[in-house]
Amino acid sequence: MLQVKADERTFLRAKEQIDLLMLDRKTRTRLYRRLGAQLVKKTKANIRAQRNPDGSPWKRRKRGKGKMFKGLQRKVKHRQFNNNRDLKVGWFGFSSFVASRHHYGKGEKHRFTEKIDKDRRDEKIDKNSPASRVQAKNLRELDFRLKPQGNQRRGKKPTLRWVTENMTIGEAAKEIQKLENRQPKSNWQIDRPERQLIGISPKRMAMMIKKELNRNRSS
Question: For a 10 Å CB count at each end of the chain, is N or C smaller?
C-alpha cells in the first residue's frame, strides 16, 4: 500500500511543502485524484509486465507460463482519507492481505486439518470430507489431470471448484502423495518468492507531486 500525506517532506523543498499544505480541500482532492490515477496506471503496467517497481523481472513460476496476479491487477485502486489529506494506493479488504503475502514473499504453513472448523481441529479427520482449496491448488501445481475423454490424448487439468466438489480429502491426499512420490505429511509449507507489486522511490514521488503542483499553479 502506497501512502501520500499532505505533510510529505521527503525530497520536497520548503516551498512545495507549504504549497501542498496550503491547498484547499477541493484543489487537494483534484491533485490527489490525478496523482492516484498515475500511480494506479504505473502499478498495473508493472503487473502486466511481470516486474518489480525498479524494473527487475519477477521470479518465474515453477510450473506454467501464464501471467500472474491478473485479479490483483484489476483490483488496484486509489482512495483519499483524513479529510482528503491522505492518499492511499493499493488494495483494500481481503485483496490487501493477498497482495501483501506476495509482495513480501511471506510463506504459509498448513495442516492436513486446515479445512476443519477451528473448534474441531483436535478431532479425528474425516477423509470423506470434501477436498480443501489448498489441496486443489497443490494438485493443479503438480499438474494433476483427469482421465482422457473420447479422443483426448491427455486429460484436462481440473478447476479448483471441480476438485473441492468431486474429490474427498483422502482422495486428494492420495493423488498428491502419488504425484510427489512421498509419504503423506500432516503439515506442509508453501513458500512464496518476493514479487513486489507496488512501490515508487521517494524521489520519484516528490517529482510527481511537484509536477502536479506546477500544473495547479498554471491552471
Answer: C
